[in-house]
Design goal:
globular; single chain; three-stranded mixed sheet; 212 residues
Length: 212
């Protein structure tokens, strides 16, 4: 359904949470002790301090402050310092009686304080979901037509159905492949040219995407 597609796009918009590598279902299981420096949402975050200015991380922090301002970028700077500490956020989102033994947690290797964690989002809360939903049939026809000739698509496209490039991407499951139209906020001109209606619909919808 288009609601599902919108949900996938919405999840792609935010890197606040990533899917655990084991991709467990929301059922109870024994406690895991293999996670690095994990704190739950109910636990105070570790105390952070300004990073040393002569390190790479410190120079990045200073660059963020210079570009956006220390106050305006406070949460981003805090997130960067937590990342430098190898902090991994773990937040319970399930309905299990015992959160400690539940697998219904979201894990964030790059955690931005203040972002909410939800099991699912209501697509009616976002105007852009409705706009994309109205284009569903048109986008499906474009996708079906372009992918009907895989030899041509592979020849003309860029990294068509490429495998996972990072550990986070590989955690989606065995055999996961992508055909990227946008990566880290930058459109791929080659692949966009193959799916112009899809790219236009996403642009026109106002969806805050960083990956498509």
């Amino acid at each position: 359904t288009m609601e599902y597609i919108c949900l996938v796009l919405l999840i792609a918009c935010s890197h606040a949470f990533v899917i655990p590598k084991t991709r467990p279902s929301c059922t109870t299981s024994p406690k895991s002790s293999s996670l690095p420096m994990v704190l739950s949402a109910s636990t105070d975050l570790p105390t952070t301090r300004p990073l040393h200015p002569h390190t790479f991380a410190g120079m990045v922090e200073q660059g963020i402050q210079d570009r956006f301002g220390e106050t305006e970028a406070a949460r981003v700077i805090e997130s960067w310092r937590l990342l430098e500490m190898d902090y991994e956020h773990r937040e319970f989102i399930g309905l299990d009686v015992d959160p400690e033994s539940s697998q219904c947690h979201q894990h964030a290797h790059s955690y931005v304080p203040g972002l909410s964690a939800r099991t699912f989002y209501d697509t009616t809360d976002f105007d852009w979901c409705g706009k994309l939903g109205s284009k569903y049939k048109e986008l499906k026809r474009e996708f079906t037509k372009v992918t009907s000739d895989m030899a041509k698509l592979t020849e003309e496209g860029n990294n068509v159905w490429a495998g996972a490039l990072t550990d986070d991407a590989s955690s989606y499951g065995t055999g996961w492949r992508t055909l990227v139209l946008m990566d880290r906020g930058i459109w791929d001109p080659v692949n966009v040219n193959l799916f112009p209606k899809t790219a236009k619909a996403i642009r026109d919808s106002g969806a805050p995407v960083v990956e498509v």
